[in-house]
Amino acid sequence: MPSTKIFLTSSVNLVAKDIAQKIGGAKNKKLLYIYTACEKKLGEPWQIADRNALVEAGFKVIDYTITGKTKEAIKKDIQKIDVIYFSGGNTFYLLQQIQLTKSAPIFREVVKNGKIYIGTSAGSIVAGPDIYPTYKLDNAKQAPKLKGYKGLGLVDFVVLPHWGSQHFKKRYLKQRLAHNYNTKHKLVILNDYQYLQIEDGWYRMVEIKHKTS
Fold first, then answer.
1. What CATH class is the domain 5-207?
2. CA distance 141 to 138
């Protein structure tokens, strides 16, 4: 039975090299860089930094979006790569495009069968069972065709990324925590120096050493 390997990050820019080591090195590994979540804002500094970090870690990065593609085309393209990577961006827009392409079963199947999955921010959130806990963070209006909030279900918890970031401070303290103050969802909070390593039913949080002010 193939081993399931999933890595969920808040900011892959800061942890890419460590993840590469966890999978035995990134050299010669083809990584499908699915930028769908940020395709309307390509070129943002964080997006460039994330992509560059994956390249510097040794991955052979292949830019890709699922938008406008058929389910069959996506399935065919995924067979050619070693690592599936979902970038950050708008979680609701990303899930909408997954729904429109009917590609969720494909991603579930290939990850179950051994393809490595790496997610950043939106890509980490959509890996969970439900993206609704992030409703107060992303702009859901960017996904007018979204039907429901069911995620890929690769893990049984919802990642809340960018904890401690000044950029998200107001939204966390004034909106997001109030929105999630219940026991309905299993939540895991990540800062930008942490990531989750999930393998065959177990998971652990890894933190990269960094200087603090």
1. alpha beta
2. 9
Of 30, 54, 36, 51, which Cα lies nearest the Cα of 143? 36
Domain boundaries, the chain: 5-207
Alpha-carbon distances of 47 from 34, 35, 40, 88, 101, rounded to whole Å = 12, 9, 12, 8, 24
- Global pTM reads 0.90
Measured over the CA atoms of residue 73, residue 132, residue 158 and residue 93, the dihedral's sign is positive
Q: What angle, rounded to 10 degrees, do the helices at 91-101 and 104-112 form? A: 90
What's the pLDDT at 185?
76
Radius of gyration of the chain (CA): 16
| φ, ψ (nearest 5 deg) of residue 120 | -125, 125
The predicted structure's pLDDT at residue 140: 78
- DSSP character at residue 173: I
Assigned token pair, 29:
């590994």
- Given a contact cutoff of 8 angstroms between Cβ atoms, the answer to whether 111 and 81 are in contact is no
Walk across the sheet containing 83-86 and list its strands.
60-64, 30-34, 83-86, 116-120, 5-9, 194-199, 202-207
Mean pLDDT, each 10-residue run in order, the chain (213 residues)? 89 96 95 96 92 97 98 96 97 97 98 96 96 74 93 94 63 57 77 94 87 49
Q: What are phi and psi of 151, to 5 degrees?
A: -85, -165
